[in-house]
Amino acid sequence: MAVLRRKNEARGSFISKINIVTIIFNMVTIVFMDLKYNFASHLICNTILL
């Protein structure tokens, strides 16, 4: 039983690590998309103004 419990704990920590990585990846993706969108809009505005 102790071995099973240890395996479950390991699996739980592994899943939580995956969740944390997924959340960080999503945040980075959102920030990157936001920056890219802002950069593109600035470029478009500048070309229109020129």
Describe what is shown at a glance:
The protein is mainly alpha-helical and 50 residues long.
Describe the fold and architecture.
Keywords: Membrane, Transmembrane, Transmembrane helix. There is one protein chain. By secondary structure, this protein is an all-alpha fold. It has one domain. Helices cover 96% and strands 0% of the residues. The protein is rod-shaped.
Topology:
Elements: H1 2-49
Keywords: Membrane, Transmembrane, Transmembrane helix
Transmembrane segments: 12-33
Kindly state the number of beta strands: 0
Shape: rod-shaped
Q: Helix fraction?
A: over 70%
| Tally of discrete structural domains | 1
- H/E topology pattern: H
- Which residues form runs of ≥5 with pLDDT under 50? none
Overall radius of gyration = 22 Å
Structural class: mainly alpha
Largest sheet composition: none
Mean pLDDT equals 84
Give the terminus-to-terminus CA distance: 73 Å
Strand content: under 5%
How many helical elements? 1
